[in-house]
Amino acid sequence: MVNLTIDGQQVTVSKTATIYEAAKEIGINIPVLCYAKKLMPYGACRFCLVQVEQMKGRLIPACTTPVSEGMVVTTTSEEIEKVRKTAMEFLLVNHVLDCPVCDKGGECDLQDLAYEFGSIKNRFEGEKFDLPTDEVNPLIERNMNRCVLCGRCVRVCDEVVGYGSYSFINRGFETKIATAYDRGLNCEFCGQCVSLCPVGAILPRPFKFKARPWQIREVDSVCGYCGNGCTVTLGVKDNKVETIRFNDAIGVNDGNLCIRGRFGYSYVNHEDRLTRPLVRKDGTLVEVDWEEALQVAADGLGKASKAQGVGILSGARLTNEELFLLKQVAETLGTDHLDHSGGECYKGVTEGLQETLGVSASTATFPQIETADVILAIRSDFYETHPVVGMVVNQAIRRNEAQLYIVADKKGKLNKLPRAKTLLNPPGLELDVLNAMCKALLDSGQAKTEGIADLESFKAAMGAFAPEQVAERTGVDADAIRTAAVQLAEADNSVILLAYGLPYQALSKELATAAANLALLAGIPGQAGSGLYLCGEKANSQGAIDLGILPQGDGLGAQPMLSAAAEGKLDALYIVAEDPLSSYPNRDKVAKALEAVPFLVVQDLFLSPTAEQADVVFPAASFAEKEGTFTNAERRIQRVRPGITSPGEARSDAAILTALANQLGSRLTYTGPAALFAEIGKQVPTYGAFNFDEIGPQGVVWGGEILQPLQRKLVAVGGGSTVTGDFKLVTGSALYHSGTVSTRAKGPLAVLPEAYLELCREDAAELKVEEGDLVKVTGNGTALQLKVKVGNRLPKGVVFAPYHFAEARVNQLYQGEAVVAVKVAK
Amino acid sequence: MAETAENIQVLICTGTGGLASGAQSVIDAFEAEFEKQGLEAKVGKRCDVKKTGCRGLCANDVLVDVILPGQEAVTYDFVTPELVPQIVEDHMVGNEPVPKKVAGPYYAKFLEKQQRIIFSRCGTIDAESIDDFIAHNGFTGIKKAVTMAPEEVIEEVKRSGLRGRGGGGFPTGVKWSFCKATPGEHKYLICNADEGDPGAFMDRSILEGDPYGVIEGMMIAAYAIGCDFGYVYCRAEYPLALKRLQLAIDTCYEKGLLGKNCMGLGFDFDMRIKAGAGAFVCGEETALMASIEGERGMSRPRPPFPAVRGLWGKPTNINNVETFANVSYIFYNGADWFNSIGTEGTKGTKIFALTGKVKHTGLVEVPAGTTMKEVIYDVCGGILNNRKFKAVQAGGPSGGCLPAEALDAEVDYDSLIKAGAMMGSGGLVVMDETTCMVDIARFFLNFTRVESCGKCIPCRIGLKIMLEILERITQGQGREGDIELLEDMAYDIKKSSLCGLGQTAPNPVLSTIRYFRHEYETHIKEQECPSHSCKPLLHFKVIEEKCKKCGLCPKVCPVDCIAWEKGQVAVIDRDKCTECTSCYDACRFMAIE
Question: What's the pTM?
Fold first, then answer.
């Protein structure tokens, strides 16, 4: 800690703090324009100049200068104010000053500073900028006439996002910020530049002319898409979410957002939202009132529960409190057949961890990744499924010189990061590479084996995974395997990342087990600064695991449930917040199940393909309309807050579940999220440590920043297998979408409107196809037409199709295996 | 040159200046002539043609030294291939220097007040020969340095009093000790050869004429500080320097002088060149490092200083070419010897590049403490065409203009700053009475405004506005209050800019206002340019008293608007005149205003 004096006030701050940060701590606001909390010191705008007694004769930039012991700082004086004012005059000479029609007006840093300085006169004159605006893409508008060249967009895109869309071009006064070749912006559209632009130079197009900033009501909540749990701030006007804003002051993940979080909100306002309950009458779904719908549903479910039984499938859109209520409904119905979308993916992963470490969640929190020395990402899709954690990985590399290794079957964003090394394996063989890393560690003598159970049998089982042997099978360089393993074990802070989701169902438990084995041998679990991360696909995947939304006793899980239904062995299905027909593997089986099951209740936001098959459809509330908690992939429990009311008669899942339970005869009463959270705490001890009202902006992390494993046991798993065939199809997430909900959101749709088949240039040339051509993809006894996307991500012979789009029916091809042999023809 | 030899030696300047004047054809001519004459047989001695570096007097290239055994070198200037047979015939065979072709007494005078230490090998040794370098003390400095502990090496440099020759004048030994004190496994050493000041080319000459000397200086620094990798950041506009330095580095690697266990001296040092892409701002150390890292050359805030967190985030020491060259000599001759040269505050010699309206443009090396007057008048022969001296611009775009009254200022970091200029890297632009000082300020501002990296507001926008004000003054559109406005904003720009470029860019304006305020005032109040240099302010009128009635102006006038008869003063018809300034440029008597 360092002591210094600022404007006569004593302050003690950490020695890494800057003068600006120290001043802020005691409530002294030094004006800044180019400074941004999460970016590296830059020092371009010169508004933050102050005087330091020890550095007489010069003016010192407060936002870049670190504090030192005994410093005496003066933040305002005649001289300081004069140079600040002059800089402001300079800026305003050429700036267009079109504040009346600028969306930033009212929350513009330039406006605020000019106002603060009282800059009403300008001694200088010059021409106004007259540069063309960039309106090529549908999401981000760039008007460089308003740009103050603070470089925040350039820096965030480089330092945080790792995309590098922007750069300064030209010199001197002609300097401007441009994209490559000064063309229209074409990037991953995360909108981080929009968030950081202090003026109206970079604006969200969907928000243009929608509202003045002061007309917006801001509500901090949690993003409803992936398991990162980023804080999103709903910008609400007239009961409509008009924009999503970021919160880097107190939000989780530093206010970082991806395209889904930033631009994927509009499904909430979609005109196709369900507004009234539906009941099938004479073969068609007709609108009815709640009373009737609940009656029909309760009758159907009650009857089924007394016969062959009811299966309940839920999605991770539900809050913890709603999941708790769902469990009550299951109890009321007396069914053990309960599962959530995690059953298709995340559950397996947590089981793998449970067997080895005795816990079923990530062992550390996201901030630890930023200070890691070595990072191993399993499957390159990690960035695509969890972009914001991908950004943290980028920050670790750029700020901490972390070494990144990727074990994957294709390349992606992560592979392009500095010093990233890819162990590229054929699809389905990740397990072999992980095992080889374990074997390499054991052989090198670097493995941390103290206190680890079942070492000998594990060693014996790894005999078949000598790096050379695996190299032969997978084509991954044996030395690269060894180096990666040894570095992971040698580093003080090591991180293993494993992301999971619906399209990555195969071998999920085995992969998690292999990753946990490696983590144990590298000394990662429980070690401060290190961690093994399991990242679920959905916002509350971890909550569903924590609350045990899993088959109870001998109950059926998701897939067996669907099989049973298809075979006529279940009498009802109650599907909450899921669209299995669109997103679950093996569409034909799902279709058969939905067709065969005598009674189907669906609870959703839209009339999804699954809901269309239902006997009763309940209109539910989106994340923006309800209150409760989500638990993200780092075990952080956060508050979800309502910004708007639901359209029409749509109700929150909590309200629907309570009403249904009551209709079924239960005396369950909905007592509000706080009371329910307390109830959860009684059943889930890790949650019992917290009080709902005490959950602050940063949430609370159950199990602590570092979750100590309850056991350390090596569990050998065998290798994977790949397929032979013309092409190997893998499916997965596209960066712009999450699940199927985002396909109803204008933002992500504008960038990626439909499914595609991605292949490498060489394959495209051999097939004589070009970007946009239609190809026939045949496999698993079915054939699909998909548009071709040509890229450099995939190795030869591997093709990729994203799973989000219901109409593309990719899940007809993909039936849950790690890789599908397909034929591709023009 | 007090150089004697066993053989007959012909030393030919092959610096950029020499080559541009045709040195290669002179070399070819000598070699052809030797062969044709069978000279070696004829005189019974070996005859060598040696390609040396620059010897300073670039204006009089091609310079050739002929050294006969046992005799002092005889220098010829303005040598052409046609002259070669005669030199060979008369001088080498006949032992009789060609009288009218030998450089005149000015050459001895040019050398008289100089103390050529750093340049001692430039112009005498074959710049591309490592053997020649070794024969002239080469690598004795580093050999001596490694017998001392690294701390003692730094102490020696501190004791020598050497200050950075890049312009700032920071004590070199102290700088080294900062980097040395920073813990770190890898440290970088950078040689700043991004010489960008208009008219300055001393670093280029050193690299072209004595590349091994710079490498040796860097090796000493690397050993002392503990750097294992060195970069020479040299602008790509110096192809010859890059070529010779690369050749020297390659040769050093071949001979095991660089790389693992340098020369067997027990330390590792690797080196490579990074060619700059032509940005002036990349001479600023933080922008230079950004450029090496592959980023856009933009300055970064300090602290952290390079010694703590520099290139690739590692501790880094940056010195200028001339500084490293000095280091070698300190270790040849000792810190005490170096300390005995110069003034109290500035030790050793300083190289200056003289350009502009001076008789002998070129490079001179004088001991610190020599006055500006001595440099301009004694060494460089005074003002061209016997015009009146007006000012000398010292320190490039960051420096200032000194008037005649300030010419007694000594070449010394502190005296020059006191006088309102700065040592800078050593560029001196000499101006005579025909130079308009407002226009000079405009020229330098135009340079810095274009070369600003665009990062910070004062430099990016402020300089452009200053330039616009200067432009309107030189166009006769100046307003009351412009001078005060310029002074005021110059102060703010200096105070608030991020790096040295912006912090010093207003200096040419401030120093011209300080010494030549009346010129500004005349421009603004009377719309007159006292030097008749600002073309928009010319009246296109013949001054009768000055006109020598030579009849040149009507000849150059493209629209035939000048009436003249023999013995008569010329008259310009303003109705027809297109103000093209051909007559003004042509008149040798400054008779047109």
Answer: 0.92
